[in-house]
Amino acid sequence: MIQKLIASLLLFPALIFNYAAQNIVQTKQYPKDYFRGPLDLPPATVGAFAELRPNHFHSGLDFRTNQQDGYPVHAAADGYVSRLRVQFGGFGNAVYITHPNGYTTVYGHLQSFSPELADLVHNYQVQMKTDIVDFNLLPLQVPVSKGQVIALSGHTGAVAGPHVHFEIRDAETQQTINPQLFGLALPDTKPPVLGTACMYSFNGPFSEKTGRRFLGVVGSNGNYRLAKPEIIEASGLTGFAITAYDCNNTSVAHNGVYSIELKVDGKTVLTYAAERFAFDQTHAINAFIDYPEFLRSSRFFQKCFILPGSKITLYPQSINRGVINFNDDSIHEVEYIVKDVAGNASNLKLKVRSSSSAKLMAAYKPTGILFHYDKQNDFSSGKVKVSLPPGNLYDDLDFTYAELPRRPGAYSPTYQIGSKYAPINDSYDLWIKPDSNIGKYADKAVIVNTDGVCEGGIYQDGYIKANPHTFGLYFIRVDTTPPFIHPVNITNGGSMAAKKAIYVKIGDSLSGVKIYMGYIDGQWVLMKWDFKSKILSYTFDGALTKGKHTFELTVTDQENNSNTFKADFYR
Ligand SMILES: [Zn+2]
Q1: What's the gap in Å between 243 CA and the centre of ligand 1?
Q2: Is the CA virtual torsion 402, 407, 412, 417 positive or negative?
């Protein structure tokens, strides 16, 4: 009788925990019934919070809109519109609402704003003489109530198709938080799918040269095992990683997982959880994934160890940064537990034979200069200077430098500046000395890499300076070519009487478009650029009288090369 009682007491707390806390790791509790979803459609997602994207963690939840634009977008709770933003890329048209409970919600890729917000945006655009704007509003300016329509959904900004990007941020720190922790539940009974595991043997800093052992995985429905059953040999400092994705019941999209826990002999050595992070740490995705392997094979191996320079707040638990020292002569059990935000779990166990007698690894020796992740790092060759502020490396780096043959049209040799496999949290200062014949082109010089990325450039003390975000192969070019302007529906002397708008296509081949200024009869007019189609447009607003008018457009690139298009037209 007493034994039975003890047994049931022991079971009881476990049941409550499973039921109430979704059985997922989180460091804080968030209000559950405060926010509603942004759409009146049955909730379905095409992207999860902290999902892995090139160079950033996805900062919100992407709600499906049936591949269409134009669905009403609703305020998630009472509050006030605190910020309005229009970007070429990023979130496109976006609304930010601040709520009295200390959170801000964000709605992105909108087709259009509500009439009241559209007026505010338009007035600010005209005042600033640009369609790209980002401004804050005062608390009493535009109060909104829960459910109020603030915009229509669309696909503006950096997106492939229509959806609403939705975020919940801590209003004070602007850290973005997983919206699904606020009770915005999606039907999900499918556990994550595991792909391939990887074991790393460390001898020095993590790099493209770190020893990797890829392990094929088979299984389904939460239960996974190695494709080739074997005991893996390991000795010394070791780390693990895995590829994984999640599906829920609302779409076939491959979404990000919520958490990855690594256990050794039943003890948790590291937990990653997609709970919240700060925007200035989002590039630390390249510390979380195996970045060299991502560049080589486009696969996202999610590491179960933390690089010492990574500051992202996605690791609620870790011992020794998740690095395991296999130094005894026994068999250990390594277990991955991968969960989605609904608590569905997938599991993979490996057996590892640890060895104490393995030959000692040779002491680590860099081939170039050792850069320290926690210090300022500087390099100079007389032709090239590099200055890397602290906080930009995730681990120490074997910095390699070489002068390589020049490319046709270049104004410097090609330089190898470090390894492209070493990720950088933000950027560094790079100076390259141009050829002496650069002369009058010094003001038009830019630093480019061999992948075609233009980093811009300014002339400074005999060098061209830029701030690249990656290492790699760099050299100097000059940009003397003005942007192109191709009229789409306007010709000189033609009629625009039946046209709703003027369309022209603009772009620049090297440094990129900096500014465009459109005028009708000498008066500045607001033109909007769709970066994806490169179409710049002016929509007639009814103010033009019948008769002859003049349209003039000037487009300038980052190196101040300008092109002008002029046409008379009739209304
Ligand atoms: Zn999104």
Answers
A1: 21
A2: negative
